[in-house]
Specification:
Helix content: over 70%
Largest sheet: none
Shape: elongated
Length: 179
């Protein structure tokens, strides 16, 4: 299989290696995923893909400083105006949904590092990147509730119920916060 992967053209090879690293991460083989992402980064230094994987790996390992650094590198590389919706190049993790996920993970790392206002800001940016992603609504609302900002949390939850693709947890949260 390795020989076949090496013969793939660059577009397919880059995407294959990205999906491979993501698969390792999602099966909790975090050290292997980290190694695969670092290899991907060395072969494709302009790719945001390894940084997406590394953000996920580091937050999963509770290495929040490293997750923040990986997310910032991803966002820097993703800021290329040719990426985003409709992108057809060699990289895989460049949709607005991927950007939203990285922003949500970045916010979570800031929260765990005690940097609450930065977390709030990045949760809001995550929602702006993909208003259909329910996770930043949940995370932002929980953070606001824990900070005593109930009216702001209520607005976030109601907005999420209207816009997110998955709303069951948001509805439960809305019901649990009623007076």
């Amino acid at each position: 299989l390795a020989g076949q992967v090496n013969r793939l053209d660059d577009t397919y090879r880059s995407r294959y290696l990205s999906l491979y690293a993501l698969g390792l991460a999602h099966t909790n083989r975090l050290i292997d995923a980290e190694d695969a992402a670092e290899k991907l980064s060395s072969e494709y230094p302009g790719s945001p893909d390894p940084w997406f994987v590394l953000t996920f790996v580091h937050i999963s390992m509770r290495e929040h400083d490293r997750a923040i650094a990986s997310a910032e590198k991803y966002l820097h590389l993703h800021s290329d105006s040719k990426m985003g919706e409709g992108y057809t190049g060699p990289y895989y993790c460049v949709s607005n949904q991927h950007r939203s996920q990285v922003l949500n993970m970045l916010a979570a790392s800031y929260k765990e590092s005690g940097r609450m206002e930065e977390a709030v800001s990045f949760y809001r940016q995550s929602i702006d990147a993909d208003s259909g992603n329910h996770l930043p609504y949940l995370n932002l609302a929980a953070l606001l509730l824990s900070s005593g900002r109930r009216s702001e949390a209520d607005l976030v939850i109601r907005s999420g119920v209207k816009q997110a693709r998955q709303v069951q947890e948001l509805r439960m949260m809305l019901h649990s916060t009623k007076d």
